[in-house]
Design brief:
The complex is a heterodimer of chains A (265) and B (328). By secondary structure, chain A is α/β, with parallel strands linked by helices. Chain A has 8 helices and 15 strands. In chain A, strand 3 and strand 4 form a beta hairpin. In chain A, helix 2 crosses helix 5 and helix 3 crosses helix 4. The longest helix of chain A has 17 residues. Helices cover 27% and strands 26% of the residues of chain B. Chain B has 8 helices and 16 strands. A 7-stranded parallel beta sheet of chain B has the order 5-9-4-1-2-3-10, with helices on both faces. In chain B, strands 13-12-14-15-16 form a 5-stranded parallel beta sheet. In chain B, strands 6-7-8 form a 3-stranded antiparallel beta sheet. In chain B, a hairpin with a 4-residue loop joins strand 7 and strand 8. The longest helix of chain B is centred in the N-terminal third of the chain and has 15 residues. Classes of the chains: A alpha/beta (265), B alpha/beta (328). Chains A and B meet through helix 3, helix 4, strand 9, strand 10 and strand 11 of A and helix 3, helix 4, strand 5, strand 7 and strand 8 of B. Strand 14 of chain A pairs antiparallel with strand 8 of chain B. The complex binds flavin-adenine dinucleotide (2 copies).
Chain lengths: 265, 328
């Protein structure tokens, strides 16, 4: 089986965010980055799938030079191949631009059976790129996946569990499928030292717009229909009241206030 | 008509979720600013009941596509219909709830139409004929306003409960436009085998009241008393990641950046420190009550009411008081 994992580099959750205000985008080169946490679950699921059903894992990331770090991490975790999709024309892509570039990468890899994505990124966090890739390529869309029950590679079928409102849905789908995974589907492993050393020496191959056969007017800032026009820091919620005194009295006050809201029936 | 605002009505197997119609209120306000109408659209095996109710909640027209193949939501099948309808009528904006169903169908349709979309909006405005949508970024540390000027329709998903439910008026009715559009089962790649209802009684995202527990509960047993308080006041049970990671409660109940984003009227946080990633999921609750034994815990900076104390003493006291005051 051929398995592709889409991995995004995102700003470290602790890092200070730097914006390019006129463009409404992030200054990704000057922020400490980490692999998108959900993509670690996606990659681990690819490793488990390869262990259970055999195959090759190809990791791809669209992004600037720094995205090499997440790909190198994937190599250290024994990805068979990695590609960075990069071109000046890709900068500023919205969800559709991003999904189009990733879909072009997947097509170029060819004969792919399974594509793993995270449920969402922790920066743009739109949570739609996986569904868009599936829609663009006409592959089975399997989002919010909490478990892969079974894969039948010969008959090109997969059965997964999806966590949706009110419960869990069990879905059977034809391969190729795009599977976007939720947290908790597995326990991602860490790369070992030997893996890291080996990966450090590997040159990461790049694919640009021409390699991918992408019309530059359809992606990046030029092709994106959405644009961030304003960035503000929301006013702090403001600390409320700390209720002091005997628990008896405090409990009386709080329960009164909550009952007064007329929400509790 | 061309600048109408359309609202997608979600349902599950014909069953109408209580909040299915919530976007008709904001849709109507937007339509007023655009000088147009708010319309509903629904897909299913039979959507007569849904259409009828959509008028009660303010839709001026309902567009519907029916067929056996649409029994049970499947994003690939529904997205084909949504793409067809939006392409044919090209309304100004199409609103979906930012639920799993709304997000999947909005994303797949936007991709089919070749455009971006705005997701998880918490505020929507029309300014000078332009739709502006605001959403939280980076765990609520920033608020960003996004426009989608090149797109028609402008596809938007809206965070559940971001806007008030519109008033219901049972006397209203209107025209239902039924479009014929069919999808062959053989063209679909997915098949739903079963649906297992979760034990989590009340859906966190739709809950008006949530009682959450964190690592401060100390162990799995701590959740017993949290559940007791939740049951007393008709709330759902939430948790911090630390509590989920400790295996005390299911992942489904995690609130925060990598869990669920909730917007209840009342959120009671017990033994939760208030890490930024947790706040990201609940800071827009109307009223936050924090119970924590550390007076310096960051949660107090965001709480409406803070109680410094051991949850083991405070929570039973709250249960006791509610029991008396609510006559339970
Ligand atoms: C604050 C902010 C707000 C934004 N608002 C919007 C908006 O409203 N509409 C819009 O269209 N765009 C928006 N964008 C742009 C959007 O974030 C980018 O298009 C981004 O490249 C893809 O979306 P995402 O990060 O939200 O991905 P998600 O859809 O959240 O990511 C899902 C999965 O897709 C895969 N993936 C996503 N990006 C990549 C990548 N570059 N390389 C490899 N795999 C990837 C990963 O597996 C990831 O887990 C916004 C960006 C920012 C910073
Ligand atoms: C990428 C990323 C994503 C994350 N996503 C999430 C997320 O979605 N949701 C989330 O919650 N976290 C998330 N986290 C984790 C987050 O940073 C915190 O670690 C977590 O929220 C802490 O949980 P907690 O408040 O329960 O535990 P702690 O921070 O350990 O706090 C426990 C609190 O309980 C108090 N306490 C102890 N005993 C008692 C008692 N007897 N009575 C009353 N109070 C008591 C303590 O004073 C303390 O304040 C994420 C982290 C990262 C890096």
């Amino acid at each position: 089986m051929k398995i592709v994992v889409c991995i995004k580099q995102v700003p470290d959750t602790e890092a200070e965010i730097k914006w390019d205000i006129p463009k409404g985008t992030l200054k990704r080169d000057s922020i400490d980055t980490i692999p998108n946490p959900f993509d670690e679950f996606a990659f681990e699921e690819a490793l488990l799938t390869r262990e259970n059903y055999d195959g090759d894992i190809v990791a791809i990331s669209m992004g600037p030079e720094k995205a090499n770090d997440v790909l190198r991490n994937a190599l250290a975790l024994t990805a068979n191949e990695v590609y960075r999709l990069t071109d000046d024309a890709f900068a500023g892509s919205d969800t559709f631009g991003t999904a189009s570039v990733l879909a072009a990468g997947i097509k170029k890899i060819g004969d792919v059976d399974l594509i793993f994505c995270g449920k969402q990124s922790t920066d743009g966090s739109t949570g739609v790129v996986g569904a868009e890739i599936a829609s663009i390529l006409g592959y089975s869309p399997l989002t919010y996946v909490s478990k892969i029950r079974q894969i039948d590679a010969a008959n090109k079928k997969i059965v997964v569990e999806r966590v949706i409102e009110g419960g869990t849905e069990v879905v059977e789908a034809k391969l190729p499928a795009v599977v976007s995974v939720i947290k908790g589907i597995n326990e991602p492993r860490l790369p070992n030292l030997m893996g890291i050393r080996k990966a450090a020496k590997i040159e990461i191959p790049q694919w640009n717009a021409d390699d991918l056969g992408i019309d530059k007017g359809k992606v990046g800032t030029a092709g994106s229909s959405t644009k961030v026009v304003e960035i503000t820091v929301p006013p702090p919620r403001g600390a409320g009241e700390i209720l002091k005194g005997e628990i008896e009295d405090v409990a009386n006050i709080v329960t009164d206030k909550l009952i007064d809201m007329k929400v509790i029936k | 008509m061309a600048n109408d605002v359309w609202v997608y009505i979600e349902h599950k197997d014909g069953g109408i979720a209580p909040l299915s119609f919530e976007l008709l209120g904001i849709g109507k306000a937007m339509a007023n600013d655009l000088g147009s109408n708010v319309c509903a659209f629904a897909i299913g095996e039979n959507v007569d009941n849904i259409a009828k109710e959509a008028f009660f909640y303010g839709a001026s027209k309902v567009f519907a596509v029916e067929g056996e193949v649409f029994k049970g939501f499947r994003s690939e099948a529904y997205a084909k219909v949504v793409t067809f309808l939006l392409d044919k009528y090209k309304p100004e904006a199409a609103l979906f709830r930012a639920t799993t169903q709304g997000t999947d169908v909005a994303a797949a349709s936007a991709a089919q139409l070749g455009m971006g979309l705005c997701t998880d909006s918490i505020d929507l405005k029309v300014e000078g004929g332009q739709v502006k949508m605001t959403r939280a970024a980076f765990g609520g540390n920033y608020s960003v306003t996004v426009v989608n000027e090149k797109a028609k329709p402008q596809i938007v998903t809206v965070r559940p409960k971001a806007f008030a439910m519109p008033e219901k008026d049972d006397s209203k009715s209107g025209e239902v436009v039924k479009e014929a559009f069919s999808v062959e089962e053989s063209d679909l790649n997915t098949k739903i085998l079963e649906f297992n209802k979760s034990e989590v009684a009340i859906n966190l995202v739709e809950a008006d009241i949530i009682v959450s527990g964190g690592r401060g509960l100390g162990n799995e047993d701590g959740f017993k008393i949290i559940k007791e308080l939740a049951a007393m006041i008709g709330g759902a049970v939430g948790a911090s990641r630390a509590a989920v990671d400790s295996g005390w409660i299911s992942q489904e109940q995690q609130v925060g950046q990598t869990g669920k984003t909730v917007k209840p009227k009342i959120y009671i946080a017990c033994g939760i420190s208030g890490a930024i990633q947790h706040l990201a999921g609940m800071r827009t609750a109307d009223c936050i009550v924090a119970i924590n034994k550390d007076p310096e815990a960051p949660i107090f900076k965001n709480a409406t009411y803070g109680i410094v104390g051991d949850y083991k003493q405070v929570v039973p006291k709250l249960i006791e008081k509610f029991k008396v005051k609510l006559n339970k």
